[in-house]
Amino acid sequence: MHVTHADFSAASAVVPSSRLDAFVAANRFDKPTLVLDIDRVEAQYHALAAGLSSADIHYAVKANPARQIIERLVALGSHFDAASRGEIELCLSLGADPAHISFGNTVKRASDIAFAHQAGIDIFAADAEEELEKIAENAPGAQVYIRLIVDASGADWPLTRKFGTSRDKAVRLMNMARDLGLAPVGVSFHVGSQTRKPEMWADTLDQVAAIWAEALDAGHDLSLVNIGGGFPAFYGDEIAHPTDYAAKVMEMVRARFGDTPRVMAEPGRGLVAEAGVIAAEVLLVSRKSDDDLCRWVFLDIGKFSGLAETIDEAIRYQFTTDRDHEDTGPCILAGPSCDSADVLYEKRPVALPVGLKSGDRIVIRNCGAYTSSYSSVGFNGFPPLDVIVI
Amino acid sequence: MHVTHADFSAASAVVPSSRLDAFVAANRFDKPTLVLDIDRVEAQYHALAAGLSSADIHYAVKANPARQIIERLVALGSHFDAASRGEIELCLSLGADPAHISFGNTVKRASDIAFAHQAGIDIFAADAEEELEKIAENAPGAQVYIRLIVDASGADWPLTRKFGTSRDKAVRLMNMARDLGLAPVGVSFHVGSQTRKPEMWADTLDQVAAIWAEALDAGHDLSLVNIGGGFPAFYGDEIAHPTDYAAKVMEMVRARFGDTPRVMAEPGRGLVAEAGVIAAEVLLVSRKSDDDLCRWVFLDIGKFSGLAETIDEAIRYQFTTDRDHEDTGPCILAGPSCDSADVLYEKRPVALPVGLKSGDRIVIRNCGAYTSSYSSVGFNGFPPLDVIVI
């Protein structure tokens, strides 16, 4: 395999995993396979932790719930952010301390709140009256933090208004939490997935600090700033080293909120994305018409078997092949399912070697986050993305 | 449960399943559950078969691969269209005759073609040179039909150019197939998912007939027209009775291709969608701001746990609740995952009862197709969509 380390090492945050490339080169795969380098996860954890310093890392389990990742992070002392009862059960089963797990989904089933409370989890996210009522009823006295809507930063994937409450309601929700016997300890927000530069946090932090000040004025003794995720992974555009990035973010946080509050950070993508590659295969290369400028390249993996983040071409993965010494030409990339929506990149075609053909291996870089867990149970009869941890 | 049969029976194609409503009303579900009425599938099969008359029905397994559906259709004499080796294995394991299975994915792994050939499957789709080479090598002498790109019809979900070849290459591909020792027996196309009126087929059939005539002129003794899918299900807009719809389509087909060619039809959605409902639950109702016109309603099922066809708000499901006697107001509908993309309907809000609240049951109508198989293996720790067949 022609491994083009040189193309990536300059910009990639930490050293790319030569273990991954060696493993992929030495093996054949009869179906698309995510290969995860667990030591690369550990290296990234240390790199982030060095920059986040006094903050607690709550790994966003949804990014990749592989058991080996959770186990390793438990051993390293990481905390966890869980989106569901299923993720809580997973973390607990692998030795996580319930006091180190936050239930960060603002949309929770009442019975799942009760389960979490009984399991010893004491901190919950909320952004609405009805959610506070459910928490008060099923986890009486629990700590809650209020998730805030913030204006879009310059993130590659700005978030919708799905999560959070507007500024006009934030303090009222804290009041309500207090009246319900809960402990409104702080606020949370999300700067946007894949926020590539630390400076992009400044405006968002200003917005949050303004609400924080309002809450203090209203008599709330806040002690927690949950800065969420947004820590970037390398997908081709240069990003800072994770330690530098995290340190700059923390500097901006401390400048606004002081040294006293506890800070939680929830890296997911930024912690595990670069620890995985997908070994895939080209199934077909074709042109639809003599006039076509682009070839169509069909892979054995698509939107419904692991590459869901290509929806709207949001995340642009990088590819390596055994033909990377050849000239390249523009390709529309598509998945293997009989589904016309299963097209990965069409608006912005991908440059791939001119000689690419059916049966060729293609390696998709930095796929450790948001791939395997998105995979469908068997759409079109294709099995879920296989995962191998090395 | 307040079952609003009256709202649906007028426009729905065949009588709605009172068995489904009775079963849902009589049971509690602790997670989102697709309930399928297998007798409703059989009724729809008979209704379609009556209209399709001389055509062979190849059920598009990808629409819903539930074992009980395949078993029932095998018993009824249906044929099957498979998208993958996995679907072929499923059909064979449930008693389907390999001579009744077409391998209709134009993008196939070489080893899967060989597997299908050895299993006795003798008809394959293709739309490209490299695919023909793979078929010739792994299924020598097999029948192939050339998938054509057709201009968009008025379908609710027109297809992309992902599948098919342009007119300029169609006959050349048939020539190549013949030269490779294959039997180029015909053509296939797809009129577009959810083509609500039979008249919408006319223009597409004209395009295909023009290529058919070119192929006959070039000396190809074509004997198969595969008209694909596109048979609609009821999602709120009136559709014709399936027998009438299918009969009108067949009349148009025979008018263009004569009485001699074998006709294959591949209904998926049109065969099983109306045989299923999803019993779901409201997790949270909230307003983000005092100024919001719409409430946000969060369900325990979303884009990544079964409702993938809400991407781009393409398929608009209908909902019933126990509060359908109340006034309604506009709602943005979202799924339960911590994923900002997991919003079902926002551009066109959904009217739901004003009193809707956390814990309420919500039934999603006509969900028998393209739901359970799209479900992720466990995104955010939520289990795949449960399926119960009654």
UniProtKB/TrEMBL annotation, chains A, B:
InterPro entries: Ala_racemase/Decarboxylase_C, De-COase2_N, De-COase2_pyr-phos_BS, Orn/DAP/Arg_de-COase, Orn_de-COase, PLP-binding_barrel
Keyword Lyase found: yes
Gene Ontology molecular function: any one: ornithine decarboxylase activity
Gene3D superfamilies from the UniProt entry: Alanine racemase, Lyase, Ornithine Decarboxylase, Chain A, domain 1
CDD domains noted in UniProt: PLPDE_III_ODC
Positions carrying N6-(pyridoxal phosphate)lysine: 62
Chemical reaction(s) catalysed: L-ornithine + H(+) = putrescine + CO2
Any single GO CC term annotated in Swiss-Prot or TrEMBL for this entry: cytoplasm
EC number(s) reported in the record: 4.1.1.17
Protein transport as UniProt keyword: no
Active site, per annotation: 338
PANTHER family from the UniProt entry: ARGININE/DIAMINOPIMELATE/ORNITHINE DECARBOXYLASE, ORNITHINE DECARBOXYLASE 1-RELATED
Protein name listed in UniProt: ornithine decarboxylase
The organism of origin for this protein: Rhodophyticola porphyridii
